[in-house]
């Protein structure tokens, strides 16, 4: 009997804990922050790592950046239930430092497995770390808001909502880039 997508995702989550991925990070984090949303989503958003609020609630993008993400989603007629949201690194790095390259590498196979299960039409990378891990060699300042096809998957690199919170010009850029999502999906379909 074929497992449901949700059951497959639950298994990937269990594998991370079982294989003790990034044990050092796990020690300082409250819990594993795996992902949130619909396993049947057409769009997957990928950030870099959980922050303080995410670590406490066990959900990605629930702090100020998450509120901004929710606003942008509603701006294109979607809610969190319609999409899937995750991070490359699944544990909060201490003091919200950037994830280290080896931490991103350790979690990448699990992220790829998540994407294989969900099979989104569009993967939206939020911020430089997420883009670098999935689309190596690009500069976010040059390619944000431009869809890229890589190994059969369409990606849309965007600035991270947290970066835009404190920068009005970047905020508008992110809102404008976000508004392209429905059009990009139409083209893919």
How large a portion of the residues is in β-strands, by DSSP E?
5-15%
Identify low-pLDDT runs.
none
Rounded to the nearest angstrom, the radius of gyration is: 16 Å
Q: Can you give the mean pLDDT?
A: 95
CA(first)-CA(last) distance: 29 Å
Explain what you see:
There is one protein chain. The protein is of the alpha/beta class. It has a single domain, classed as Uracil-DNA Glycosylase, subunit E (3-Layer(aba) Sandwich). Helices cover 48% and strands 13% of the residues. The chain has helices spanning 5-18, 23-28, 52-57, 64-75, 101-118, 128-134, 140-143, 161-165, 168-178, 181-188; strands at 36-37, 43-47, 84-87, 122-126, 148-150, 153-158. Strand 5 and strand 6 (153-158) form a beta hairpin. Helix 1 packs antiparallel against helix 5 (101-118). The longest helix is centred in the middle third of the chain and has 18 residues, at 101-118. The relative contact order is 0.16.
Would you spell out the secondary-structure blueprint of this structure?
Layout: H1 5-18, H2 23-28, E1 36-37, E2 43-47, H3 52-57, H4 64-75, E3 84-87, H5 101-118, E4 122-126, H6 128-134, H7 140-143, E5 148-150, E6 153-158, H8 161-165, H9 168-178, H10 181-188
Descriptive key words:
alpha/beta, six-stranded mixed beta sheet, single chain, 189 residues, 10 helices, Uracil-DNA Glycosylase, subunit E, 6 strands
Quick overview of this protein structure:
The chain is of the alpha/beta class and 189 residues long. 48% of the residues lie in helices and 13% in strands.
């Amino acid at each position: 009997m074929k497992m449901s997508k949700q059951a497959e995702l639950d298994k990937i989550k269990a594998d991370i804990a079982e294989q003790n991925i990034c044990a050092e990070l796990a020690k300082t984090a409250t819990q594993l922050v795996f992902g949130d949303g619909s396993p049947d989503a057409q769009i997957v958003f990928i950030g870099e790592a959980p922050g303080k609020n995410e670590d406490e609630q066990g959900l990605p993008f629930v702090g100020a950046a998450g509120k901004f993400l929710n606003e942008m989603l509603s701006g294109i007629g979607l809610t969190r239930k319609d999409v899937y949201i995750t991070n490359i690194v699944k544990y909060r790095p201490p003091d919200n430092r950037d994830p280290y390259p080896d931490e991103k590498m350790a979690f990448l196979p699990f992220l790829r497995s998540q994407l294989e299960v969900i099979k989104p039409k569009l993967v939206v990378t939020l911020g430089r770390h997420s883009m670098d891990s999935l689309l190596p060699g690009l500069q976010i300042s040059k390619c944000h808001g431009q869809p890229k096809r890589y190994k059969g998957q369409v990606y849309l690199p965007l600035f991270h909502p947290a970066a835009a919170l404190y920068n009005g010009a970047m905020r508008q850029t992110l809102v404008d880039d976000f508004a392209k999502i429905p059009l990009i999906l139409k083209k893919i379909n």
